[in-house]
Amino acid sequence: MFTNYFKTAIRNIWKNRTYSMINILGLAIGLAIFSLTTGLAKFHYSFNRFHKDANRIYCVIQVLPSGETGERHKAQTCAPLRKLLLEEFAEIEDATRWINTGRTVVRKGDKKFYAEELRIWIVDPNFLTFFSFEMIFGNPETVFKDPNSVVLAETTARKYFGRLDVVGEKLTIWDDAELVVKGITRDPPANSSLKYEALVATDIYDLDTNWNIRGATFIKLAEQVPPARLERKFPDFIRAYPSESPDRPENLYLLALTDLNLQPTHIRGYWPAENPQVLYLTFVIGILILLAVCFNYMNLATAQYFTRAREVGVRKVVGASRSQLMGQFFGESVLLSMIAFPMALMLNEIMRPLFVYLGSPDPGRAAPELWSDPFLILQLFVITILMGIVAGGYPSFILSHLAPVDVFKGNLLSGRKAARIRQLLIILQFTAAIFFVLTTLVAFIQHKHLINFDVGYQRDNILVIPLGTNYSRTSLRPLKDDLQRHPDIHNVATASWAPATWGSEGQVIVEGADESAVWTMNLYGIDYDFIELLELQILQGRSFSRRHGDSASVIINETAARQLKWENPIGKKLTFWGRTGVVVGVVKDFFFKSLLNEIYPSILYLEPNYLNYLFIKLSDAPVSRVINFVENRWRIFSPDTPFEYSLMDDRYEKSLSGIQKWAALAGMIGLLTIIFSCLGLYGLASYITQRRTKEIGIRKAHGATTSDIVRLIVSEFLKLIALAVVFGWAIFYIFDRILVDDIFAYSAETGPGNYVLAGAIALVTGLLAVLIQTIKAAKANPVDCLKYE
How many domains in the chain? Predict the structure, then answer.
């Protein structure tokens, strides 16, 4: 029997090979996209789980007060906190911390390298025993035993030395710190939140007593100790907090190591994290595309049932049972899906580079190859079988339900129930298609909105050059004066960081306020001329000026003045980082951080020593006319530092590239959904026109024109598509109000024109699919329609 079913299935697939190929390709594409989105979700949920005892490791998050009612959640804590926690709480089995050192120049002999930002860490001696990073050379228990020890990641060792066996070699960082390589580790895995290039021993600084040093603190709880037990004790611990600085936290709590990658967006950490809402949405898109191809299969299979009806009737007359017929049709459906399975695996490999590029801002954090996860392949195989059963269930049920007398009389599927199910499938498909189209439109609109957003400063024609080490204003003055001699250079300034990625924060005490009430503000260290170079708009007071001796002056943004309720801020005093500054000006709000975050109270102050970026304002001349001059002057000024540069506008657009890529990904999937929806609609139109062949013939015999017939049939489909448009609009409106505003702090308004455009795309494409089949039926000769009656 099985052999007979198999042969029959192969014959029918070959006989209807056009429909079969559409179904197979659709199933394969759906499975491939589903496997990519599922693999991405599974990958991000796997972050940091490779560490031993990962379920007992937590990052300490501190809640800092900000004004009367506000608060900020930060993974950045004072360095001595580790020692205090170990001494105070028996529930903590172990603890470690790391301090990032920013962008650093590393020298090996005559060679100079830039270490990436946040990639060289000062760590405790137990760091490599606390976490489970794999060692290639060196003992994790002893590598930091000696002073000035450094451990390199595998790629870093090859970059600096060209080989791995470099234990005992020396490197120089921070201008004069000579470190000895004591070990080599494998590169942190792709699913690690903690990515480093080099780990430096803690003897560089006294981390247990210096409250001005901040980093990330991790603890390991003892067995069977729930985090809530420790968190209940934190308020009493904070009240006895020995620090008298404004950095005293309002509260502490624990964030699981396994949650770092999908941490809540309000927590500011040192590691890149995915937006949970975007990841959830990507996973939902994968499910929706899978359902769309299933619905497409059902509609196309239903459209073909006329060719199988007489076969069913004959089989039933000769004794075939309903279960046998259902088994046969289920088998054909599963066979189609099984043919699609290897194609899905191949499409996964073909589509993966594009998916990785569009779906992840950092390709190193994208899902690994499908072949590296056999369990995912097994899951995909099981889903393929289930999809074949589900997709084939509806047509199998209908075909096996046919009575022989109805088959030979031609009374096939005239019931309302069957029609409603088919109509529901079409509505669901087009609802999903409209949702995808709107998602794509909104993502591109949001990207354009943020690109053109008034960030409060000038971005055009500004060169950004990383200095690499902490220069002082005095040491940089000759270089600035030399550069300004070029006719195409209008201004030169320096700062401790660069806009678009600038994230420094600190606790601020306000003059006249209760000292227990502190504010968390953005703190931006700059040099003279920085405000003028970026064309920040002064609303009150004045800018920094050398003739005023402004070393103890500060300038605040309008949000700070508004939240502090200062109508006239000039002359007010603010204390932060152990220094007190007098407000001499108020600037219009500016966005030096990501636009995904709201504007915060900000302070601009003159930084005398830690200036790490050089900014050069150019005329409208091409960069090529200036860059050689700038590089030559840089080589003279700092021959030991590599020369790199970027344009500020490019840096800004790069910070928003993830939005644009995600929009392109949603658009690609939306296009496929529309194609599948149109194929399903084409199949249903084929079924309707076949079923109404006699009616069409009679109407034409009584004088109906082709346009009359087309209008009659198309109107039925127009109602379905219009209903899907309304559903799609409603679902996206809810999504837009709940999720979009949560993802973007400054979101563009989704105007009615976008809804109309999405509805028009669905209507036009859907009606084209229907018209192709309907016009063909309407033009048929009435004699051909009625000659068998």
Answer: 4
Alpha-helix runs per DSSP H in 89-153: 127-130
Beta bridge partners of 267: 73
3-state SS assignment for residue 714: helix
What is the 3-class SS of 160-178, one letter each residue?
HHCCCCCCCCEEEECCCEE
Q: Is 140 found in the same domain as 76?
A: yes
Say how far apart CA 47 and CA 190 lie, in whole Å. Answer: 8
The answer to whether the CB of 415 falls within 8 A of the CB of 321 is no
Residue 775: half-sphere exposure toward Cβ, Cα within 13 Å:
6
Closest CA to 515 of 582, 562, 574: 574
How many Cβ atoms are within 10 Å of 339's Cβ, its own excluded?
A: 18
SS (H, E, C) 501-527: CCCCEEEEEECCCCCCCEEEEEEEEEC
Tokens 């790391």 belong to 98
**DSSP 8-state assignment for residue 368:** P
Whether 20 and 95 map to the same domain: the answer is no
> Rounded distance, CA 710 to CA 463, Å?
63
Q: Which tens digits make up the pLDDT trace of 665-701?
A: 777 777 777 777 777 677 667 767 766 777 777 777 7
**What was the pLDDT predicted at 691?**
67
Which pLDDT does position 587 carry in this prediction?
A: 96
- Give dist(CA 84, CA 238) in Å, integer: 11
- Could you give the CA distance from residue 529 to residue 512 in angstroms, rounded to a whole number? 31
CB under 8 Å to 407, separation ≥6 — which residues? 309, 310, 312, 313
Range of the domain at 588: 462-619
Number of separate helices (H) and strands (E) present in the chain: 24, 26
Residue 59 CA to residue 299 CA, distance in Å, equals 52
**414 CB neighbour count, 10 Å cutoff:** 10
State the alpha helices, DSSP H only, in 99-223.
127-130, 154-161
* Torsion angle, alpha carbons of 525, 531, 536, 537, to 10: 110
Q: What is the mean pLDDT of residues 614-623?
A: 86
pLDDT digits over 742-782, tens only? 666 666 677 788 888 888 887 887 778 777 777 776 676 66
**pLDDT tens per residue, range 55-99:** 999 999 998 877 755 788 888 888 889 999 999 999 999 999 998
Choose the most confident range, by mean pLDDT, from 12-21, 176-185, 472-481, 678-687: 176-185
Residue showing tokens 């509505």? 427
3-state secondary structure of 76: strand
Helix (H, G, I), strand (E, B) or coil at 493: strand
Asked whether the beta carbons of 269 and 396 are under 8 A apart, the reply is: no
The sign of the torsion formed by the CA atoms of 716, 720, 721, 722 equals positive
The three-state secondary structure class of 153 is: strand
Q: Using CA atoms, how far apart are residues 494 and 365, in angstroms rounded to an integer?
A: 33
The answer to whether position 778 is within a domain reads yes
Q: Do the Cβ atoms of 599 and 559 come closer than 8 Å?
A: yes
Is residue 644 one of the residues assigned to a domain?
A: no
Last residue of a domain, which of 619, 643, 676? 619
Question: What's the distance, CA 128 to chain centroid?
Answer: 29
Average of per-residue pLDDT across 151-173: 90
> Residues 560-610: pLDDT tens digits?
999 888 989 999 999 888 789 999 999 999 988 877 677 889 999 998 888
Rounded distance between C-alpha atoms, residue 691 and residue 701, angstroms? 18
Round to whole Å and give the CA distance between 558 and 580. 20
Length of the chain: 789
Q: What is the pLDDT of residue 674?
A: 74
Instruction: Please report, to the nearest 10 degrees, the dihedral formed by the alpha carbons of residues 12, 13, 16, 18 taken in order.
Output: 180
Establish if 166 belongs to a structural domain. Answer: yes
CA atoms within 13 A of residue 100's CA, in its CB half-sphere: 18
pLDDT in the model for residue 279: 75
Question: The pTM is what?
Answer: 0.78
Domain assignment of residue 220, yes or no: yes
For residues 568 and 446, membership in a common domain is answered with: no
